[in-house]
Specification:
Pfam families (chain A): ABC_tran
Radius of gyration of chain A: 18 Å
Radius of gyration of chain B: 23 Å
Distance between the termini of chain A: 33 Å
Number of strands of chain B: 0
CATH topology of one domain in chain B: ABC transporter involved in vitamin B12 uptake, BtuC
Strand order of the largest sheet of chain A: 6-7-8-3-9-10
Strand content of chain A: 15-25%
CATH class of chain A: Alpha Beta
Helix content of chain B: over 70%
GO molecular function (chain A): ATP binding; ATP hydrolysis activity
Number of domains of chain A: 1
Structural class of chain A: alpha/beta
Distance between the termini of chain B: 85 Å
CATH topology of chain A: Rossmann fold
Number of helices of chain A: 10
Largest interface: B-C, 58 and 61 residues
Keywords (chain A): ATP-binding, Nucleotide-binding, Transport
Protein name (chain A): Manganese/zinc/iron transport system ATP-binding protein
Shape of chain A: globular
Structural class of chain B: mainly alpha
Order of helices and strands of chain A: EEEHEEEHHHHEHEHEEHHH
Number of helices of chain B: 13
Helix content of chain A: 25-40%
Number of strands of chain A: 10
CATH superfamily of chain A: P-loop containing nucleotide triphosphate hydrolases
CATH class of one domain in chain B: Mainly Alpha
CATH superfamily of one domain in chain B: ABC transporter involved in vitamin B12 uptake, BtuC
Largest sheet of chain B: none
CATH architecture of one domain in chain B: Orthogonal Bundle
Oligomer: heterotrimer
InterPro entries (chain A): AAA+_ATPase (IPR003593), ABC_transporter-like_ATP-bd (IPR003439), ABC_transporter-like_CS (IPR017871), Metal_Ion_Import_ABC (IPR050153), P-loop_NTPase (IPR027417)
Chain lengths: 246, 302, 289
């Protein structure tokens, strides 16, 4: 059984359809890149999967059950600018928030939760900054804190919204390393991505999206010149497209 | 016709003019997303009025106006300073300035009441507004100033439109943006100060934004929206003043209740943007989609 | 106990209550919602009076709670249906406040509550309105009311600290973790309504706003930890109350107004001298040493 199935999902803002009849099914342990032009509904897709915005139609299944029953299995890494980094708290505290699902409602974090949070910080190379106020971290460091938080959550499926935006080269490398580690541990990861150059190197599967699913499948076979042209409405020039596809 | 009737007619006229002016100017306040700043200015006007009274020694609309304009300007500057130089966000900055300035106003008001015999000054009317208490000369001042404001707004309409919609573009094509912003700010302060007497500090901001918000539901054109907001404002003003006179209830709250009723009606029943027509449209759209899907499925089976 | 001590105790309780609740409002960028609720609560008080014919205690709390939640709900509803959020706040609270004022003036002969009083409060009268049990006075009603609300506030914050924190920082993440974000929002608004109505009678609508927002925003300049911020903002609230009371009696002016002004003064001083986020420190850092 595939861990993540999206079935005929349609989302509309007011009278405009933002996503139309989106269906795909992701096998276990794959890194999936979600690719498409601005306004193609990439972030909306994630938000609708997580029920942040209402779906007009369609379902999301996690390990065969509706998402609503399996929330704890899905971790979400929002875009970095979606939170206020001036919030009075430190890096360790943010990572500890990833444990809240395990701790349970109204209970305090235990010692082992703090230890797990520390380990997760260590994994993204942020242990020395554990007590640093989050506004004093660089963009890349903030992104790593978010990833550590997702790790601490210990989910089976991860949805990441543009984790590579505005980060330095070192962080980008660290993120990729982490994604691969998650993969080897049998986790399924979906990443909204906009850099066409790196798609082939990073992802096993791609979902080419422009309001509808243009193509979905293994990167080798799916990330082709024709599909990219279809996704971007022919706006990718011939030269750069052949370069990307390689 | 006796004197009383003439006075009543004057009150109606001035309330209509006030509603018209504040509706028109409020359109720009609303579109610039400064509704809460309007609220802050109304509250901040109080200490300015009190200081003007303390300095001048008696009630004078002109000095009140200058005082209120000064403190309104200082308040706006404080909000901008806090947002620019600290990590405090705009909502909290507005809250800080609004409440501290108003607190200062209350302190000064109690000082005046106790030391300067201010109960006769009529300053207390500024808190809740009392259109019926407007004297003949007040009404004259009110009428003249609102007419001037309406004229200024009409003259600069095109310019206000462009700086509200796209400030950067306006600057790019050589429109004197900061000067025009200054003029607009001046108009907002003016209408707030003039309106305080009629509707009071707390509800003044609503007289600015509620008619404009109601107007937004009926049209996509700024020209019509401004005009309609003015009409809604004037209607609420007259209706409020009328009921206030016969029921002995403060004018301000009544005007706002009428304005809100107009807003609610627009919000629910306006032809294109209203809630009802939106719901109906969504229903139709959904049906269309379902039919499309059904046809698609059948097509696959065939 | 003497008159002054009761007043100071009242002001202190207002300071602590508002400091605790206000911290979350400032962090959630909902400061202006406190402005809204503090005004619309007037309608709740009038409504409670019309139903129960008394102006105190439980009925007043319930009335305020209902109208407070109604305000929150209406603002949310308008915002969801496409009204920009600042305008939504502005329309809702002014309308509810206006209805409250009209009701008061219609029943003026029967309601012993004038609007001026509601806006400015009258903390000077607090010590005379005492609660009696079995014929013996056990202190002013306002103090008991504020103490009761403080107990609720502290209980909720201790009990749901973690949930309040994450839903304030990252509500989307909180939703995916199965934290009842909407419930927490309404609980917080309930706390805000109770705090407002308990403080209302003694300090008035506008001062409640000052006490909710200014000490919390000031504490935000002093610390980078949420727990410290809560304590710090309660402390600043208390400090402002004492300074304000002393100043008001010295110049014989409105106590509640003076307390609002002193929160402003403390904020202004902190703006410059706060260690990490103060302007002096920032500018010293910028200029080459």
């Amino acid at each position: 059984m595939n861990p993540l199935v999206v079935d005929q999902m349609t989302v509309a803002y007011d009278r405009q359809l933002v996503l139309e009849d989106v269906s795909f099914s992701v096998p276990e342990g794959k890194l999936v890149g979600i690719i498409g032009p601005n306004g193609a509904g990439k972030s909306t897709l994630m938000k609708a999967m997580l029920n942040f915005i209402p779906r007009m139609h369609g379902n999301v299944f996690v390990y065969g059950q509706p998402y609503e029953k399996q929330r704890h299995l899905v971790g979400y890494v929002p875009q970095r600018n979606s939170v206020d980094w001036d919030f009075p708290t430190n890096a360790l505290d943010v990572v500890l928030m990833g444990r809240y699902g395990h701790i349970g409602l109204w209970k305090r974090p235990r010692k082992e939760d703090v230890e797990i949070a520390m380990q997760c910080l260590d994994k993204v190379g942020m242990l020395p900054y554990a007590k640093r106020q989050i506004s004093q971290l660089s963009g890349g460091q903030q992104q790593r804190v978010f990833l550590a938080r997702a790790l601490a959550q210990d989910a089976s499926i991860y949805l990441m919204d543009e984790p590579f935006v505005g980060v330095d080269a070192a962080t980008e490398k660290a993120i990729i390393q982490l994604l691969n580690e998650l993969k080897t541990r049998g986790k399924t990861v979906l990443v909204v991505h906009h850099d066409l150059q790196t798609v082939r190197d990073y992802f096993d599967y791609v979902l080419l999206l422009n309001k509808r699913v243009i193509a979905f499948g293994e990167t080798e076979r799916t990330f082709t010149y024709d599909h990219i042209q279809n996704t971007y409405g022919g706006k990718v020039t011939f030269l750069s497209a052949t370069h990307i596809v390689g | 016709m006796n004197n009383m009737d003439i006075n009543v007619q004057w009150v109606f006229t001035s309330m209509a003019l006030l509603g018209l002016a504040s509706g028109m100017i409020g359109t720009f306040v609303l579109l610039k997303k400064q509704s809460l700043i309007g609220d802050a200015m109304a509250h901040a006007a109080l200490p300015g009025i009190c200081i003007a009274f303390l300095l001048y020694g008696q009630k004078s609309l002109l000095f009140f106006f200058i005082g209120a304009a000064c403190s309104g300007y200082v308040a706006t500057a404080c909000i901008q300073f806090i947002v620019k130089h600290t990590r405090i966000k705009e909502d909290a900055a507005i809250g800080i300035v609004l409440s501290v300035f108003f607190g200062l106003g209350i302190v000064l008001l109690t000082w005046i009441n106790q030391h300067e015999g201010g109960n006769q000054s009529g300053i207390n009317d500024f808190l809740f507004g009392k259109a019926a208490s407007l004297t003949g000369s007040d009404v004259n001042v009110l009428a003249v100033t609102t007419i001037i404001m309406i004229i200024i707004t009409s003259v600069f309409f095109k310019e206000f439109k462009i700086i509200t919609f796209d400030r950067a573009f306006a600057q790019g094509i050589g429109v004197p943006v900061s000067l025009l912003n200054g003029v607009l700010m001046f108009l907002i302060v003016s209408v707030v100060v003039v309106g305080l007497q009629a509707v009071g500090v707390v509800l003044m901001s609503a007289l600015l934004i509620t008619p404009a918000l109601a107007a937004r539901y009926w049209t996509e054109k700024l020209e019509w929206m401004t005009l309609l907001a003015g009409v809604f404002g004037a209607l609420s003003g007259v209706a409020g003043a009328y009921v206030s006179l016969i029921a002995y209830v403060p004018t301000g709250p009544l005007v706002i209740i009428f304005a809100t009723a107009l807003f609610l009606f627009s919000f629910l029943f306006a032809p294109k943007r209203g809630l009802c027509s939106k719901i109906i449209r969504r229903h139709v759209e959904r049906k269309k989609l379902r039919v499309k899907q059904l046809m698609y499925e059948r097509g696959e089976q065939l | 106990m003497s008159y002054t001590i009761w007043i100071l105790l009242t002001a202190t309780l207002v300071g602590i209550n508002c400091g605790l609740v206000g911290t979350f409002l400032v962090l959630r960028k909902m400061s202006m919602l406190s402005d809204a609720i503090s005004h619309s609560v007037l309608l709740g008080i009038v409504g409670a009076y019309m139903v129960s014919h008394q102006l105190q205690g439980v009925s007043m709390l319930i009335g305020a709670l209902l109208v407070g939640l109604l305000t929150t709900f209406l603002v949310q509803l308008l915002h969801q249906k496409g009204v920009q959020s600042d305008a939504a706040i502005g329309v809702v609270f002014t309308c509810l406040f206006a209805i409250g004022v009209v009701l008061i003036s219609l029943f003026a002969d029967r309601v012993h509550l004038d609007v001026e009083h509601a806006l400015m409060g009258e903390i000077a009268f607090v010590p005379w309105d005492v609660l009696e049990v079995g014929g013996r006075s056990i202190g002013p009603k306002a103090v008991w009311l504020l103490g009761f609300v403080l107990a609720i506030n502290i209980f909720v914050i201790v009990f749901a600290y973690k949930e309040l924190k994450i839903s304030s920082f990252d509500s989307e993440m909180a939703i995916t973790l199965g934290i009842p974000v909407v419930l927490i929002h309404y609980v917080l608004m309930g706390m805000l309504s109770l705090t407002t109505v308990a403080s209302f009678d003694s300090v008035g609508a506008i001062l409640v706003v000052a006490m909710l927002i200014v000490p919390s925003a000031t504490a935000y300049l002093w610390t980078d930890r949420l727990s410290t911020m809560l304590i710090c903002s309660a402390f600043i609230g208390v400090l402002a109350s004492v300074i304000g009371y002393v100043g008001a009696t010295a110049f014989n002016v409105s106590i509640s107004g003076a307390i609002a002004v002193s929160t402003g003064v403390i904020f202004f001083v902190s703006l410059w001298i706060a260690p990490k986020h103060g302007l002096l420190r920032k500018w010293m850092k910028k200029s080459p040493a």
